[in-house]
Design brief:
The protein is of the alpha+beta class. It has one domain: NADH Oxidase. It is built from 9 helices and 4 strands. α5 packs antiparallel against α6. It is globular, with a radius of gyration of 19 Å.
Length: about 200
């Protein structure tokens, strides 16, 4: 079994994928289900995933992603979507906790009031939150893919307007990242160097 530490240490971005590999609906669903274990502010889960698997849809997405070959070759490319204004769904999303008695009415009301106080009327902050949540889910998805023996490759190399149009995104939805997932083909780069810890860590 791949441990979390193994997955963190062994994940690399792949450019080359086996174009003959097809992923089942169950496998795609499991990856997204694992990604949704990610944390999000107030548990607002302001993300959505579009799994592009058909050859035709892959070609259209590839065209919107500056023709990056991995979009056409990987078994699936996920469009990870962040939702601006996700706090508005909190009353519905945390109601099951109230119903189950996990929180009381005061905690429920406080949860929603605090979120509204933080996000209401702050469009940029809501957008930041959409990017944050979708990015955390993206990382979890990539680590889950590693754990399942797949290669992955995150991409920001795409035209957001074209991806939004292709995926029919709503006005409050942001295409945060594309993630190609599948079996690696030969020719991928080895692990890349990282900045030294001295350069990036401050302990106070
Ligand atoms: C937000 C983000 C966007 C990226 N966009 C692209 C991309 O469009 N095309 C690409 O080939 N790689 C892309 N990458 C991959 C990075 O180049 C890669 O993560 C980085 O070089 C570190 O390598 P590693 O992931 O193998 O550790 C992206 C990575 C991230 C996190």
């Amino acid at each position: 079994m791949t441990t979390a530490l193994d997955a963190i240490r062994s994940r690399t971005s792949a450019n080359h994928f086996d174009p003959t590999h097809v992923m089942s609906r169950e496998e795609v669903t499991e990856l997204v289900s694992l990604a949704t274990e990610s944390p999000s502010s107030f548990n607002m889960q302001n993300w959505r995933f579009i799994a592009v698997t058909s050859p035709e849809a892959k070609q259209r997405l590839k065209a919107a992603a500056f023709n990056q070959p991995k979009v056409g070759d990987a078994a699936v490319t996920f469009v990870v979507v962040g939702e601006v204004g996700g706090h508005k769904h909190l009353p519905r999303l945390i109601k099951p906790m109230l119903d189950a008695g996990a929180i009381n009415q005061a905690a429920y009301d406080g949860w929603i009031n605090m979120a509204n106080g933080l996000y209401e009327g702050k469009e940029q902050f809501q957008r930041d939150e959409a990017i944050r949540s979708a990015s955390l889910a993206s990382m979890t998805l990539m680590l889950a893919a590693t754990g399942k023996g797949y290669a992955s490759g995150a991409m920001i190399g795409f035209d957001p307007a074209a991806v939004s149009a292709e995926c029919g995104l709503a006005a409050n939805e942001v295409p945060v990242m594309l993630i190609a997932v599948g079996h690696a083909a030969p020719g991928n780069w080895p692990r890349k160097v990282r900045r030294s810890i001295d350069e990036i860590l401050t302990i106070r």
